[in-house]
Structures are given as C-alpha cells and as structure tokens.
UniProtKB/TrEMBL annotation:
Organism: Spirosoma foliorum
Domain (Oxidoreductase molybdopterin-binding) ranges: 34-167
Name under which the protein is recorded: Molybdopterin-dependent oxidoreductase
Top-level taxon in the UniProt lineage: Bacteria
Xref: InterPro entries: OxRdtase_Mopterin-bd_dom (IPR000572), OxRdtase_Mopterin-bd_sf (IPR036374)
Amino acid sequence: MNQPKSRNQSANRLFIAITLSFFFSTLVSRAQTVLTISGEVTKPLTLQAADLKAMPHAEVTGNDRDGKEHKYSGIPLSELLKQAGATLGSALRGENLTKYVAIKAIDGYEVIFALAEIDPEFATRTIILADAVDGAPLPQGVRPYRVVVPGEKKPARWIREVKSIEVRFAK
C-alpha cells in the first residue's frame, strides 16, 4: 500500500516543480522584456531598458482610472518613432496619413493611434511611453512601460506592460 502513496507524492512533487518552473520563467521573461519598434519604419529598433532610460524624458499629468491626478515621466512616442524612421512632420501627408500605430502589451492587449495623433506637428498633447509615476518606478502589473495619453476622458488606451510598437498602413 505504501508504493501507490509514494507514486502520488512523486506525481504531486513533479506537478509543483513544473508549475513553479513555468511561473518563474514567466517572471524572468517579463523582467527581460525589450521594446521593439517595427513595421512601416526605415530603421526597426529593439531597445533595452538601459537604452530607454538614457533617452530624454518628458513629464505629463493625467487622471488614472482611480480618478486621481498623477505625474508620469517617460519618452515621447514621437521621439521613439522618429528614431525608428517613421513618417512624421512634413512627410506626414497624402497616403502617409493612413498610417497608424499599434501598441501591444505582454498579455496581447493592443491599442491603436492614428500616426497624426502622435506627431507634434498635428497634435497639441504629448503622448509618452512612461517608465515612472509620481517619481517612482511603475508598479508591478504596469511596468516595464505604460502609454499615457493626457486629456483622454477614459484611460482605455493607457496600455500597460508595453512590449512592441508597430507602424502600419490602414489600406
């Protein structure tokens, strides 16, 4: 009778070991997330956390889902797209106005912005890829990066855990 119990214990231990292994590998992969910028750009980028930290940051304020005002710090999306060679400024006309930016999170959530919404020659607000809020790093479940759109009534496009940015044509 001892042998079946021993097999069950071994199976339980194996199940726990596999579950823990999966859990920790998920945490490690999230911690090592890089940001990619691709699509209709002349210079696709893969940026590490240190690359983004070294870039000039802007600060914006906005009301989060909690209704409280927060101060976010991050890189303007327009600067990231400019570095990747996206069509911005005087070149953003004609068929280029049908381009949009798809931003994807680690969990697969995706939001879209018209490219003109991000271009400072078209828009008055600065949309940022935030890495800090109220002087502290973004909290767990939001980091490594979050898009912050000042002035939006609903923060539904304030995508968190951002992993990629892709410029696409709508046609």
